[in-house]
Description:
There is one protein chain. By secondary structure, this protein is an alpha/beta fold. The protein has a domain at 172-425: Enolase-like C-terminal domain (TIM Barrel), CATH 3.20.20.120. The chain contains 18 helices and 12 strands. The strands form 2 sheets. Strands 4, 5, 6, 7, 8, 9, 10, 11 and 12 form a 9-stranded mixed sheet that branches. Strands 1-2-3 form a 3-stranded antiparallel sheet. Helix 11 (232-246) links the parallel strand 5 and strand 6 (251-255). Helix 4 (93-101) runs antiparallel to helix 5 (114-135). It is globular. It is an enzyme of class 4 (lyase). InterPro entries: Enolase-like_C_sf (IPR036849), Enolase-like_N (IPR029017), Enolase_C-like (IPR029065), L-fuconate_dehydratase (IPR034610), Mandel_Rmase/mucon_lact_enz_CS (IPR018110), Mandelate_racemase_C (IPR013342), Mandelate_racemase_N_dom (IPR013341), RHMD-like (IPR046945). Its EC number is 4.2.1.68. Its cofactor is Mg(2+).
Amino acid sequence: MSSAAPVSARITALDVLDVRFPTSEHLDGSDAMNPEPDYSAAYVILRTDATDGLEGHALAFTTGRGNNVQAAAIAALASHVVGLSVEEICADLGAFSRSLVHDPQLRWLGPEKGVIHMATGAVVNAAWDLAAKRAGKPVWRFLSEMSPEELVGQVDFRWLSDALTSQEALDILRRAEPGRQKRIARLLERGYPAYTTTPGWLGYSDEKLARLSREAVADGFALIKLKVGASLDDDIRRMRTAREAVGDGVRIAVDANQRWDVAEAIQWMRELAPYRPYWIEEPTSPDDILGHAAVREALSPIKVATGEHVANRVVFKQLLQAGAVDIVQIDAARVGGVNENIAILLLAAKFGVPVCPHAGGVGLCEMVQHLSMFDYVAVSGTVEDRVIEYVDHLHEHFVDPVRIGEGHYLAPALPGLGAEMHQASLKEYAYPDGPVWSARL
Length: 441
């Protein structure tokens, strides 16, 4: 009698945890629109019955009270995931992503934007973490070793084909393919350029701003970023303080976090222009394509950057089509996960616009570094005028925290996406019953 065929491993649970850090107490993360954020993670664990014991970990980032809403949205996807074959998900992550995005009833809540789309992104990213762990590779390398055809298969080209066809995407990837191994070697040797926002939070004193700015330059960062937008007089003084601290050879970017209308953005930035800001980030609403184009035209050569709150690949497409941005800022936890970020990287490559990711938040540095490193190896083939944001907060809570050396992200070596947190941290900062919060509440 022949033995029974082996049973395929299945997803057995999608756990969602509400994890929050009281960063508002020291004004870490403070800006003109978010004066007292508590960096938070709607944290996802994909559990399986596979004998390898591997799990998929990811998160959606919020700034506090919205975390329970985000967690509920992620939990609503559980019925779409639990019971699926682990092998089938990992073999076709593009199909898995589309199955979540295209649910005809849940997508009504977007479509493909907002809380439900961020929830999809968290689950999709957890699946990539699981797949990369099963392959024994960090996600950046897992992606970089896929064929151009496999990578194109990850992308949903619906609503993109007027700007980027699947054939054009394939051509971009094929052009970059010959130099992949050389770029992997360089990445492992040197890392990927970083910039730091650590000195620039709006709640910091001038003394702290100057000290942290000098320390950033000493640590090898060639670009720092300041938050602006609450008070023009304060911004002028802080820009002057930062410029005096770092000298003329270091770039200073500024970030308004959507604070201004278009005319106000132009007027405000003209006042800061003597201190040579490199870019103005989120000068107005992230949905205002024409507004960004007007700001860019008025302020050149100051660059315009946006993307951390851009809802999906379609808005990125329009920003690029309209010539509205000089810098594309992807975010690992805003859009529909790795798959949609691949689409955005390909769009940016098509239009020749550099990508400098947003990473100000818990776990965002850990996740988004993989996307930029993949972009360098397999898509754009360059790090010129490209940097990943670095924020020196909360990395100690992660199993595989980011590593920075001489102003560069050092390439992750452990398998996965880097979002897995220590069990002790998940328990201690659980909201509202973890010890940190029960003591405060």
